[in-house]
Amino acid sequence: MNTPQWLQAGLLLVAALAIATIVSLVVRAVLRLREKVGLGTVSVRAARMIRRAFGVATVGLVVIFGLQVTDLPLDVEAKAVFGAEVAFLVAGALLLLGLWEATCDLLAARSKPSERAERLLIPVIRKLVRACILILAFLATLGLFGVNVAGLLAGLGIGGLVVALAAKDSVENIFGSVTILFDMPFAIGDWVKIDKVEGVVEEINLRSTKVRTFEDSIITLPNSNLIKASVENYGARRFRRQRFFIRFLPTSTAPQLLDFTAKLQAFIENDLANVVPDKTHVRINEVTETTIGVLVVTYFETDQYGVEIETREKLLTFALNLAQELDLHLSGGPFTPPRS
Description:
The protein is of the alpha+beta class. Helix content is 59%, strand content 15%. It has helices at 3-36, 44-66, 74-110, 116-144, 149-158, 160-166, 168-183, 223-228, 254-270, 305-325; strands at residues 191-194, 197-204, 208-213, 218-222, 231-233, 240-248, 281-287, 292-300.
């Protein structure tokens, strides 16, 4: 290649990169304008993929059109055309990934936090489709490099047993994620206990599930373990039971205690929010030489831990004030846990 031809090739490459940068900036401006007019917010990840897709595709287009006006050797033109085809393939994969991410972001934004199906389906389907796009892009790339993809897939059929045995754990993990998807034992944000692991589900992948414990550490559980493991989902509870004793000194009289139990039950049933009335019981349940115990059993209708402890605080505060009003004195410390 002589010097003018090298110069043509360099100018073509510079022009392709410059135009691609301009196109990427235009796409960024369009995406921001789309957000301003209220058509939905595109995540940074999705926007980056879409911009890069248009930029890479622009490089390929400029190279293809530039070859029509340049005088390059045939072997260089062939390599340039091959590079443009690779650019189109990469751009197509990036565009599909970006559009899919944007679609999932839109669905996640429109779903309600309380809808467990959306909190599970969207993250898992997002990763599953993303993996399929990457696999198809990889196979298409092999085809561009002259690999017989059809023969390769047929060969995998013959050696499928060997591959399955080699990837046994990976296959089990994928089946585990499918089990989670269909059974929906938990979703992202649920408080769960899986065998000895207890915490909040933070991420569900095709291979594993990440649980953040209450000590703020992350435990990664292979999805294959979830097929056989017992999963206790505290987040799926319809009601949150409250059961405790309020113990008074034995000098308390029966009229005082009956007045206390009646007023406390009336408060729980009528004045306390998020309570199931027909599941509330306040009764004298324990008499010893040193204490008289009043058992309080009630159920809070909430799926949020913050609401539970706030409601419990209101109940206990009222009970303390009521005991003081009725001249009842606590014994053995306030609100000791019940004996099993």
